[in-house]
Amino acid sequence: MGYKPKSKVNIKETTGKEFIFMSSRHKAFSDLNERDYYRGFYIETSGGKYYAGKNILYTRIQLIKPDSDEGVFGDSIDVKNYIRSNSFSYKKLKNTTDIYGHKNTPTEFDYQKGYFTRYFIKKVNEKFGYVEVNKEVFSSIRRKNQTHDPFLYKSGNIHWSLIGNVHRANQLNIQRKERVFPYISTLFPLFNEFQKPDLQVQEDLNTIGNELYHDDGKEYMGAYHIHPVEGPMEGPKHIDSSHARLYYSQNIPKIEINIGSKISDEAFEKWKKEKDILASMSNALKSSIEDPLTKEEKEQKTKEQKEARQEEIDAYLATKKSGKSSTSAGESGY
Fold it and tell me: Could you write out the three-class secondary structure of 27-78?
């Protein structure tokens, strides 16, 4: 270092544990000993550098502040022993950086292609530890470089459709990707994300199931079309006459009845019908639990009850007939 005027340096003194010699910079913090620390006067420059001594003309011995591991790995005996026995892994992990989420967005060129690539990572020790990231972080984990911990994360990507029947295309892509990355759908729940409004009706589409539903939750299979305003509707083409709307699983409407609120007659009748169906199912289940007889046993039981009832009727009629006969005989004797 060249000569520095006194106005640009400060002469201070340290009692230890504040600076170490530049030659000790490669040591882990827990491996530093008394000989690595500097005590005495030191020179602090306006540029943030430190030198041993107080002679500004003699600045050959540079000092640095030790990089403490405490608060990151801890400073316990166990941590120190682990660091000594795994110094290579420790140094690698110590230099890794945290990963932050990033929402990938399509460009105009992507819309011309009709799709773009989205990148994500997952913590290997978490069931739902998915985070969307940029391409650089994805490549870092894939190549296992020193920027991020490649043993803690698993990286992946997915093609995301932007035009056409994007809901079906992205749903199929998600289903295929879940064979390798279970629950990846929790990261991408909106299958039509980034789709631009399309004023044209998509016609002559077909579903074999597990895709569209009626408003009552019943699955729909067959031809359908997608209206730019109404969404998916039954039938291969859009027509002027009335035809039902269809819904994706996450969009099936739910009817909520609040006491004191005003609802339409149609909505009330639908709610009442659903309530009656549930009550019927509940009664059937209750009946099957309380009376666990088979169909044949129930028929036999009913037959026996009818026979017993008939016997009672026959006995009653016989008694009535006998009583009439006795009365007639008495009247004749008189």
Answer: CCHHHCCHHHECCEEEEEECCCCEEECCCCCCCCCEEECCCCCCCCCCCCHH
